[in-house]
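Q: A reviewer asked whether we had any structural model of the full assembly, not just the individual parts. We don't, so I'm hoping you can provide one. Inputs are below.
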Amino acid sequence: MPILLPIDVLLLAACAWLAVGFAGILAPRNFFFISKILFPLGAAVAVLAGLTSLRFLGGAAETAVLAIGLPGLPFHLRLDNLTAVFALLVGFAAAGISIFAAGYFRKGEGTAPGLMCLQYHVFLASMLLVLLADDAYAFMVAWECMALSSFFLVTTEHRHAEIRRAGYLYLLIAHVGAIAILLSFGVMTAGSGDYSFAGMRAQQLSSFWASVAFLLALFGFGAKAGLLPVHVWLPEAHPAAPSPVSAMMSGVMLKTAIYGLLRVSFDLVGSPIWWWGVVAMTVGLATAVFGVLYSTVQSDMKRLLAYSSIENIGLLAVALGLALLFHAYRMDGLAALAMTALLYHCLAHAGFKSLLFLCTGSVLHATKERSLGKLGGLIHRMPWVAWLALAGVIASAGLPPLSGFVSEWLLLQAFLFSPGLPHSWLNMVVPVAAAVVALVAALAGFAMVKFYGIVFLGQMREEALKEAQDAGPWERAGLLWLAGLTLALGVLPSTVIGIIDAATAQLLGTGLAERVEEHGWLLLAPITPERASYQPLIFLVVIVAAGLLGRILVRRLYHGRGRRTAAWDCGYVFQGPRAQDTAEGFSQPIRRIFEPMFRMERHFPTLRDEKPYYSVKVEDHLWHWLYLPLARLVNGISTLITALQGGRIAIYLLYSFLTLIVLLLVARP
Amino acid sequence: MSISGLLWQLFAIVLALALAPLLTGWVNQCRAWLQNRSAPPLLQPYYMLHKLFLKDVVLAHGASPIFRFAPFAMFGCMLLACAIIPTLSTDLPFAPAADTIALVGVFGLARIFISLAAMDIGTSFGTLGGRREMLVGFLAEPALLMVIFTMAMIAQSTSVATIVETLAHRDFVIYPSLAFAGIAFTFVSFAENARVPIDNPATHLELTMIHEAMILEYSGRHLALIEWAASLKLYAYSCLGLALFFPWGIAEGDSFLGLLMSIPVLVAKLAIGGALLAFIETINAKVRIFRAPEFLGTAFLFAVLGLLVRLLLESRV
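A: Here is a predicted structure for the entire assembly that you could use as a starting point for your response.
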């Protein structure tokens, strides 16, 4: 018997991260020590956490009790397979991001490096503790630590007003969400006062209270994940944060919210009701369509990726809804298919979205530009970043043979079974929802071509870009690690499903592993090979072999001659970089076709303008329909309340006196 | 995976490489006849390819490695698609590598590469073509997927081989859902192959072109590969349509005679299909690019209708 159980190792990893963070405080200005020693150390801890979870997967749950916390309510911790899958995600994604961060942070920008190091590692440790928590108290403490540390990380460059504004919005919505989560836990204890998760599992809630708990959890965790309509913080906070932090938030932190949703709806609350699945799926579809449409029309590369994260969270919610729906009708084999798609997409998104955010970080450092209108042609100056970003782009567009496609394929396969649902109209409507998923995937391709084509291809839109430098060795290592994960998740689906299947089996009682592993690691066939199969490795090999063979044969049979000349200018001599499509121009078809979805302010030049200009500003309808009225309402109420503030001590004494009288009248024994 | 199976797979790929330009040539010839022009020779696409391969490549100054790499990637994708679609037999070794959904993914991958290559030089026409191609792509993909869903519900499978086997062996009943799906598939394949209502393969008129705008900067062997890949795509879509909606005559298993017999059947089916394609192209006019959503929206509606008909009326058949 080993002396250290996996749960102990994970706990030690969290402590090690805290220690690394506090070590940064000891020498807050020693830049070399922090970036080249502490961050790589953090990455090593991350790899350790990832490997431990990997080794644990499939094992029996382990628990631990920490003697800290409230009197009579110590921290309960538990490591089970669901936790392990997400801890694996945190560990492996954080390893790449930390290595990248070692080369990323520069002297003299924003927060002092020591403080930054502390916030970053507290953020990591609290995410791991969120996953390990086994009672509501420990969960909320870790959850709040996560929210606060990430708030400080978002506001690293707090001297800019808009970054402070973004951070404030993030903090506000995070707390609205946290209140809902807390209430949800409260409902699930059913007044027993037992806040441990084991106690919640033991409660038999009526279907009404179970639904209340589920809806509160959906709202609360949705606020963290970025589900509609509480998504507004995401496109503000992600661009504001330094790129490794954006990568960590988008790739990893959003997944903790998905973890919470899974924990509540499949583990704590008991057996689900079918319409929960419909709610989750509807919200998910709306979020996915919204996210992808807005990501295609963005002009800021990090905002584009942030909206794309909203889209991916939407797809995850769709998978969750489908799994709930199948589970509610006791079709657990199919629920396992949807659940596998969900978990797979969590892993895939953690890989490719972190990769893309880190690439924008390198671009940002090399060019000081985030606006797509001022980038272009960077593949010539930054080949490493450009080629690795291509992997992220293909995965993010959901195309074979990389990771995004596998989860999408599994999700669509799960959708194909939805006509079997024993319900009078769901079996008609749900299959059509798959078309929306297909539309989202295809639009994601549009957004990604826009992102890649405008940042890395074409002519450089500014003179200054000619001076751009490629990423350094640390950054390259981090990017390579994440690109490698994306590739591995893409070409080894059967192996990966075998690994994550323990979590599916734990939540649903049945998994896919037996059926999948029967056909070996090369062939992915979740049901039977006659029904559906996919062999990504053959895919990759045939495409590469055909391309290479084509090249060799052409050169052998004909020749490989070529020369360079100016591009064809159609007889029009002013073909500068300005003649290329801008980011706004590229998305013009989307704005035109989906016009009602956007709130647009446009300015068109007229013939008489001295200095004609064209501008378009795209805004979110929800700001004007929901948030601004809400803000006005809150403002109005506060104005009413200020009427009470006379500013004279006598009036306040009168208030106290009146309150006392009222209390005496009302609160008689 | 037997040796003979592998040999037949290789043969199917070589056949695709050989037949694809011929199909393009045949369609062009039919079009010319229908439009009262004197037709180019049937082998014209081969002469074109030969000429282009002989020519030097002329690259623009700003061309990056992606630009040179894209034609090969696109060619590889299309070849893979042709290897997966059961042209001769449903029992070839590459068939389980991808089902219909993954096939849509292969076409999507090729589209991404060619659109990125179009944006690479940084001329206004290239990016214009790139964004239009992506526009057509995202409009066509949901419709195509709904067609696939309808087929998959009938056959209880997304694997092309199983769908073909199921449909070829059913009793001869006319499924209304198949008719709707067939119409939708035809619409989608016109759009995806840059044919007339959406794009015109013969045009170089700046404001209307899509495919031609993307490949404006290509020359020499790169252009040859792209043209070859485009004809492979047409061949793949035709074979997919024939396999899904007219599955008779495709061999099952790998008996030599059966496979040998399937070749003339395939050629005959392609000849009829190509002539029909030319006919439809001739009686239609190209629509404005912003009418494309209507055209493909119709295709989508037909596909959904097919799916609903399948679910409502035929679920007990």
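A: Points you may want to mention in the reply: The first strand of chain A starts at residue 62 and ends at 70. The two ends of chain A are 61 Å apart (CA to CA).
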